[in-house]
Write a structure and sequence with these properties.
The complex is a heterodimer. By secondary structure, chain A is of the alpha+beta class. Chain A contains 6 helices and 4 strands; from the N terminus they run ααβββααααβ. The model of chain A has no long low-confidence stretch (mean pLDDT 90). Chain B is an alpha/beta fold. Classes of the chains: A alpha+beta, B alpha/beta. At the A-B interface, helix 1 and helix 2 of A face helix 10 of B.
Chain lengths: 156, 405
């Protein structure tokens, strides 16, 4: 596993030019995720409508290229997804990085799958897995447990 | 300067990620020479017994060796008989001991503790606990634009309520060496005890604590080419009986009855239970190792490497050194423009280069410097100019990988 596999084009692109990195004008769910081990911080904003669809989402934060790219890609993939499907996609992403499980889902289109699969090599760098899963676990916790902050160091 | 010294450290025989190991993280922990490793193994293989209890030959021999480290450590730090040395788990525990078993006894609500902006969390969190317990106040001696402590502002911070000053010997982020003599002489004018976090000092800086005249000096064995699990606290003799007992148990008592307990005197009061005996005994070999090389030579070697590295890195305009202290040891930290320290660490790691990325347990300092994190380089006796060359190439590799987009 070479370091070039980790820093793929898509990760570098999103790491250097993150999409949706701003605070939404109106949001009804937000969560701050924090990794005390490395200082990565993300704040995620979501506007969820009555049909339980994420109308819009965005993030702000500071962190390494992996963390910022994961947040950026996540905001693209989850836009217009239902809350229910969000949890399935988050699970897909977390399994992708756990390296033990081959992960697949019918919810995502090919382009979205390719985007998320760009992060699969992070699994080979155990110290960096939480950099990528931080925004996803934050969104999961906000939706499933109504959490407003998470400390990823305390999550297995 | 120290030709072929890497051969004394077996770790350098192994490849890391298929590359020669370039170890630039000695401020975190140092690698171990074969003599130290052998001393641990030899003690367990041939000489093991618990210390301070049995009266059979093996136990007596083990006790003598354990105490030999204590007395050798005294000469190593220039303590003579004016100080006593307590074995702890690490420097963190030593600092906690000063806060909890000493300062705890006389600090009251509204009393003040002076620390500095460069302290490692180990020399902040124990004082924070005390602040919470007692309603005390912590004041921070600030740094100047070079990252050096503004010692001329110390007197302004001191008041009648100041009860203790605790400072590091050297910043583990910027390498700024604390002017301890100045700080201690100011403190003496006001009769304020001074505790020194010597974690970065013991193996890398000149050390004569009797001349410094500090009251406490905390350090760790594992950062001085010794084993993990053993820390040291040098206590000025006059304070020894002021220390309350630490953890309770066997070995720290004089007399126990159903109604009451009399604690052991001196250092034994603070060394309850079976101590990391093999580690303490092996630490003797790290003292020998350092003494053989000579402290002056070590300082010269490491300061010189810092100078060469900074000179080389100054040619790379994307590299920003976080602080440029006037009096700097073998440590510095930097950031590469637009690349996070953890990405730098991961890429360097693939080249066999071990550096630390993050805040290095110094969040207050990073906040003062207005940066989120940094990459730290710290030298030990085994480093040489090839390591700096590898670092510079590694940094270019980081830039190349991130240049694409």
């Amino acid at each position: 596993m070479s370091v070039k596999d980790l820093y793929q084009e898509l990760i570098l692109d999103h790491g250097n030019n993150p999409r949706n990195r701003n605070e939404l004008d109106s949001f009804n769910k937000n969560i701050k995720g924090f990794n005390p081990l490395c200082g990565d911080k993300v704040h995620i904003f979501m506007r969820i409508n009555e049909e339980k669809i994420i109308e819009d989402l965005s993030f702000t934060g500071e962190g390494c290229a992996i963390c910022i790219a994961a947040s950026s890609v996540m905001t693209e993939v989850l836009k217009k997804k239902s809350v229910k499907n969000t949890l399935i996609i988050a699970d897909f992403f977390n399994k992708l990085l756990s390296s033990s499980n081959q992960s697949d889902t019918t919810i995502l289109n090919e382009e979205e799958k390719i985007k998320l699969n760009s992060f699969s090599s992070v699994a080979k760098f155990p110290m960096r897995i939480k950099c990528a899963t931080l925004p996803w676990i934050a969104v999961e916790s906000a939706i499933a447990n109504n959490a407003t902050t998470i400390n990823i160091d305390k999550i297995k | 300067m120290f030709k072929d010294i890497k051969e004394q450290f077996p770790i350098f025989k192994n490849k890391t990620n298929g590359k020669e190991l370039v170890y630039l993280d000695s401020a975190n922990s140092s690698q171990k020479p074969q003599t130290v490793i052998d001393a641990v193994s030899n003690f367990y293989s041939n000489e093991f017994a618990n210390v301070g209890r049995g009266i059979y030959s093996l136990a007596v021999n083990a006790s003598e060796k354990y105490e030999l480290t204590r007395s050798n450590l005294k000469s190593f730090i220039g303590a003579s008989d004016d100080y006593e040395i307590v074995f702890t788990k690490n420097a963190t525990e030593s600092l906690n001991l000063v806060a909890s078993c000493f300062a705890e006894k006389f600090i009251e609500e509204g009393d003040e503790i002076i620390l500095t902006e460069v302290e490692h969390h180990a020399n902040y969190v124990p004082w924070h606990y005390l602040r919470k317990r007692k309603g005390a106040i912590i004041k921070f001696l600030p740094i100047d634009e070079n990252g050096d402590l503004k010692v001329d502002e110390l007197e302004k911070l001191i008041s009648k309520k100041t009860k203790i000053i605790s400072v590091t010997h050297m910043s583990n982020v910027t390498g700024s060496i604390t002017p301890l003599k100045e700080i201690i002489s100011i403190a003496k004018k006001y009769n304020i005890p001074v505790s020194v976090d010597g974690t970065q000092g013991a193996a890398h800086l000149e050390l004569d604590i009797k001349e410094l005249d500090c009251d406490f000096y905390s350090f760790s064995g594992h950062k001085m080419y010794g084993p993990t699990g053993v820390g040291l606290l040098a206590i000025k003799y006059k304070w020894l009986d002021e220390f309350g007992p630490f953890i309770g148990g066997g070995g720290m008592i004089d007399y126990v009855s159903k109604k009451d307990i009399a604690y052991a005197r001196g250092v034994w009061k603070m060394e309850a239970g079976t101590m990391p005996t093999a580690e303490v005994i092996a630490l003797n070999e790290s003292i020998n190792f350092i003494n053989k090389l000579g402290k002056q030579n070590i300082i010269k070697h490491e300061v010189n490497l810092t100078r060469i590295a900074l000179e080389k890195l100054s040619k790379n305009t994307a590299v920003k050194i976080v602080a440029s202290p006037k009096n700097q040891g073998g440590v510095f930290s930097f950031n590469i423009d637009k690349i996070h320290s953890h990405d730098v660490s991961t890429i360097l790691d693939q080249e066999g280069i071990a550096v630390r990325g993050g805040h290095h347990c110094c969040q207050i300092l990073h906040e003062v410097l207005n940066i989120n994190s940094s990459v730290r380089v710290s030298f030990g006796v085994y480093n040489n100019e090839n390591d700096i060359e590898a670092l510079c190439e590694g940094i270019e590799k980081c830039q190349n990988i991130f240049k694409k987009k």
